[in-house]
Amino acid sequence: MISLDGECLKIAETMENFSGWVRAQLHKFDEEHNPKIRYSYFCGVCERVFTYDTDQGDDSICRKSTCVEYGYNIGRLI
Fold first, then answer.
1. Are 75 and 45 spatial neighbours (Cβ–Cβ below 8 Å)?
2. Which helix (H) or strand (E) holds 39?
3. Which among 30, 39, 50, 54 is most buried, taking Cβ atoms within 10 Å?
4. Do 28 and 50 share a domain, yes or no?
């Protein structure tokens, strides 16, 4: 629940999805001020970095289908 003054209410009424916009701004604020831990893995052959929001353990696999190491274990970046 938020409260708006008259001027802000007029602006909000012109927006198609004001509540969605507010939620998006809150998520953006949270990401900027409370960064999430990201887990990155590096393929030394194709030099691609794969990033995940969850821990994949000590190894993941190369997911670049044109890489000769495709499907093989790659290590976590520290």
1. no
2. strand 39-42
3. 50
4. no
